[in-house]
Amino acid sequence: MIELREVSFFYEKQNPLFDHFSFSVERGESLAVLGPSGCGKTTFLYLVSGLLKPQEGEIRVEGQELLGPREKTALILQDYGLLPWKTIKENVELGLKFRKISKDSLPDYWLKRLGIYEVKDKYPHQVSGGQKQRAAIARSLVLKPDIILMDEPFSSLDAPTRESLQDLIVDLHRHEHLTVILVTHTIEEAAYVGERILVLLDPPHRKPFVIRKDGRPLQRNEDAFISLCTELRHHIERLWNRGA
């Protein structure tokens, strides 16, 4: 569904982040992109979203070259992006209003599905961080996307709220058949949410290093999940030492 072909990208007067980098994401896949700050995770996400254009190579989505943002790709950021003077429900409806799409019953459906219907008439400053992030997710889902891109969306939340939202993303991916790309610097989050984990360390990135799970969802307390987290740590340490 998403294909990066020999992509090279750099910011002006900086060393390249990606150097003839090729990678693909299948339709309906959940991919976690794991790495430290400054490794190019967010740049990868912005390239796939169409907000950034590579200097070399091309990115294709559904077989079409990506020349800019597409309507069926949703981007969810850490800071929620909610308008403070709009209620939660009005924020959820914003995309429909901008695209002049009938509101019908979708906003209420997603407000209920995501557990924030009871705060729909409150303003962002009146609700918790977890409820704000659920509103940001609902705002994307009402537009019926086929791809959801998430840039460290839970990093500022407390552990119970973060895990609850991770559960939500896993559930949405499974039941809505969405293609999900989640950027994170947390090993446990990558291991829980991603079916595959793309590890990015020191740029420039030329060949993708990917770890694939065994195909079934893992629970946080099971041995297979703990083993996967340990494996990820070992791989990251090995790659880091190799680049040192």
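Above is the first protein from milestone M3; the second protein from the same milestone is given next.
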Amino acid sequence: MVWPGSRELRMRVLFLPNTPSNGPSARYRVYQFVPYLAHNNIKAVCHSALTPFIYSKFSPAGGWLHKIIYFTLSALFRILALLRLPFYDVIFIQKLVLPHVYPFPEVLLCKLGKWLGKRVIFDFDDAIYTVSAVRKKTLIERLSYPERVQRIIGLCDDVVVGNEYLAHFARKYHKNVHLIPTSIDMTKYPVPKFNEQKAGPFVIGWIGTPSTLPYLYSIKPALQEIALKHEVVLRIVGGKDYACSGIEVEYLTWSLDNEVEYICSFDIGIMPLTDDPWSRGKCGLKLLQYLAAGVPAVASPVGVNKDIIDDGVNGYWAESTRQWVDKIERIISFPAEHINMTRLARKTVEDEYSLAANLNKLIKVLSG
């Protein structure tokens, strides 16, 4: 419950995000809420597992040396947070910093936090208890500690997850599981203006990270077929080196400043997924961003995508190559017919997946 008239400090919360704010999961699960918590008399401080420089400089995708530096520093930064615990009422741990081994930094935080009488909350928005199915397993993934997530869940007072699939998993190990969907700050997304006289190629857009780019290969034949019949460009934000002959591909470098602008430049947003445990745990961020921007969206009916999209009402589902071609062509050929769809899409986000809709849920969890 929010007490807007009160000036008294209600609590002190130490957020421990697994990355700085340029990491999408931490940004949408933690950082964007901080100023709004302050407005509700909650002192919230973020102690990231990495600095922005380290996060951008030593991406795990850069090879073994980068991985060693990245994860060693992540663990060290999280352990250093132990020194801050006495000064806060609530400790909010976002994900694990060592995704595949025994989670000793989080175990230390949980045990010391409980010993000091603090409430400890664990948040995750991916199926971090399994591994991605769209790439080959690494050696460390093959040797991973299988009970790593269950171990932390059992040590916390409360668990927060991003969708019902993750909640089902967490409820096996804890009774206090709260579902707070990934939330969009709608103040950053202008009300879209429909332009019936669009010039130039039709922009099929995708936003993500290099690790999620392989999902695009599942619809490669559909994109190639569409390019044979229509003037289109595939605009990729946050990824590169997508091999897809027969279609023009444009790569844009993601930044926090240009994220919304790039999404608003799409004529259609796509979110293909494979149907596997890792993909079912995803929380639909890019799909929600498309809907918030008023961009017609086509997505695989996997996991939370099935909850977000009402097929044919606020967006489209597509499974087979034929369905991907048909749904995308429908938007290309009849853009005016999708004006109401985009309005309903934006309303879906406002009502269920916006920061405004979910702020009180977070405050309630923090309050205990």
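Note on the second protein: DSSP finds 16 helices and twelve strands in the chain.
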